[in-house]
Amino acid sequence: MNMRNNFRYTSLGLVFAFVGVMIISRVIHIQIGPTHESIMAFEEDDGMELINLHPERGDIYDRHGRMLAGNRLVYEVAIELSYVKNPETIAWATSAYLGLDYNKVLASASLKLTETDLWHITLDNFVPYENAEILIKLKQDLREHPENAGVSSNGEPHDLTGLTITPRLERKYPEGQVASNVLGFVMKDGASIQGVEEELHWLLSGVEKQETVSTDPHLALELPETIHGADIVLTLDREIQIALEEVLDAHMASSGSTAGSIIVMNPRSGEILGMASNPRMDLAGDWDFVNLFEGNLAFNMALDGYEPGSVFKVVTMASALDAGVVVPTTEFIDTGGLSVDGWTIHNWDGGAWGPQTMTTCLQHSLNVCLAWIATERLGPNLFYKYLRDFQFGQPTNIELAREYAGHVRFNNNENWHLIDLATNSYGQGIEVTPVQMLRAVSAVANDGKMMTPYILQAVVDKDRQYSFGPEIAGQPISAATAHTLSEMLAVSLEQEASTALVPGYRLAGKTGTATIYNDSLTNASFVGWGPVDDPQFLVYIWLFKPTSTPWASLVAAPVFHDIVERLVVLMDIPPDAVRLSMSAK
Amino acid sequence: MLFTSGDVMENISQFTQAYSQAPWRKQLQVIGVFLSVLIIMLMAASVFVSITARTATLGRDIQRYRLKNEDLEYQIANLQSELAALTSASVMKVRAIEMGFQPATTDKITYIQVVGYTGKPKAEIAVPAQSVVSAAPVILPAFTQSWVDWLAEEFQNPMVSVADIRP
């Protein structure tokens, strides 16, 4: 009995002893085995690590969902000093595959934590996918097959431990220079410059941050979420945008203009369908921002201020018709000069055009006639009341960065003189932007309702699309005035046999040639819309300092013609006869 | 018959001895109790260690999958941009010309009225926000609620109401 019990106790004791020995040997193994280093490293970091949350910047699409700005995969290559085993291998690999300076990398990788405050040294932030893949594979091979690694000149085996290759995203513009002046751009350091990129940075950027997080797997669910940027959809139509840029580039070259802009808007809604500007950057290539925009040229000419010249006569005539101080048949005898405040106003050709109606005043773009309307019929109070109603001097708040508000010297300004009223009536002595002009003239093309120009069609955030609609900025003139003026401008173009006309389509429009202060060159502009009975596009053209001829009727009107020819195809607008016969059915 | 105190003590001692266990048996009992407690503690510890290890493994999986997810998101973004570059206007124009297409001009177009055609649709990158319907729960409550929750729910929403039982 006792013998049997002793055997049982001995067996039990041996089992316990065996288990004890196993536990102790495992403890020793952990202390001195291969896992020792990782545990020690974990201990040194107090179980915490610093992570960079790189959010995905939101994409930008055109109105039909075609990508204008996206992201491409690049890699950040860096050194984690606390993990570096062989600085020579790191220096060799990065110089061989990334073209980095061997000695500089070697010096950085050889730093001891006691010698520097740095523990993370970035070598290159934007390594292309192809190069990064080579480094990733090399690092993996050296880790998995150290026996094949060989040794470096310092006698240590090759090892890339401590070299980190982390994926991140970089802005990419797949359409190159298309709409670059609208989009703006993002610098390598993440700063967004100009255009939508700058104005809507708060929407697009997401939340980039650096956080210290626990490496404890039990706290995995407490890892911070990366908040990505929202995607945005613009009202731009890629095809219309390209057409505008092609036409603008061609006419700038033929007219010898320094810069220029063309905008196309839907006058019924205020949607910007295209906004071309020259010069512009090729966002797919190397950016030469400073040289391209030297001489204070605006990044987007559509947002820059200038003296518009005779296109402003549309606003003056709209005001006079709406106030009831003139009608289309009101007679005016043009003597070739009008004395105002001690100054004499002359026509563009210096001539006297004799008996005129309001329609022919517009047709021949007579400064004297418009100055007479402003000074003798409207007067300063009414004229500037209408300018306020048309919201000149106020930005349109279109979703583009750095929009200029323009400058109007109103009659309550102490520096205002009566001559300002006369010159303002034909677009001199007043500073407006093409977008402001578009907003004002939309009232004429849209039954008196002035539409706010907008370029942001929708925002897509967390898989939900939030769409935006038209906004009426005001109604400065009545519908009847708008119809009357549209008819007058259509007749003006037809009687003038303007080069702006397009066969089959009835169009309304007005040219504008403005002198530039202290310069012999001019600003050539054109504003027009069509079809007159059902306007679907409103076009504004500005050519800055054309050298072939100063006259807008010769340089800007043909631009309108070429644009309308492209627009009617791209927007599926049949000739008036076809459209009206279809409507009749 | 008289009993002395010595007799009484002897009787008690004999009585106690008769009903008491042998010393080795007592030792065995103590050892048994100790081992039982030890085994229970070991079992509890092993269950704890097992669950902790599984939790840690799952935590590591979560960390790994999050990295993988981030990597995939980056790759998707990269591929979308590549696709956009491959279908960019300039590339498509070259392809169209290679295939023999020419730009349409006003004099070459024949217009046909198509009833119901309202033109090219606007982009819908995602579901419109206003038409979002709250999604039904993916996991049924039976898989997530505790027994107490279930019991409380049953009491609050009995299948047969009291009114139905009353005569």
Commentary on this structure:
- The complex is a heterodimer of chains A (about 575) and B (about 170).
- Chain A has about 575 residues and is of the alpha+beta class.
- Among the domains of chain A are: about 80-95 and about 125-150, no CATH class; about 240-280 and about 295-455 and about 470-585, DD-peptidase/beta-lactamase superfamily (Beta-lactamase), CATH 3.40.710.10.
- Chain A contains 19 helices and 22 strands.
- In chain A, strand 2 (about 60) and strand 3 form a beta hairpin.
- In chain A, helix 11 (about 315-325) crosses helix 16 (about 480-495) and helix 13 (about 365-390) crosses helix 14 (about 420-425).
- Chain A is elongated and about 140 Å long.
- The mean pLDDT of chain A is about 90.
- Chain B has about 170 residues and is an all-alpha fold.
- Helices cover about 60% and strands about 0% of the residues of chain B.
- Chain B has helices at about 5-20, 25-85, 90-100, 145-155, 160-165; one strand at about 125-130.
- Chains A and B meet through strand 3, strand 5, helix 9, strand 17 and strand 18 of A and helix 2 and strand 1 of B.
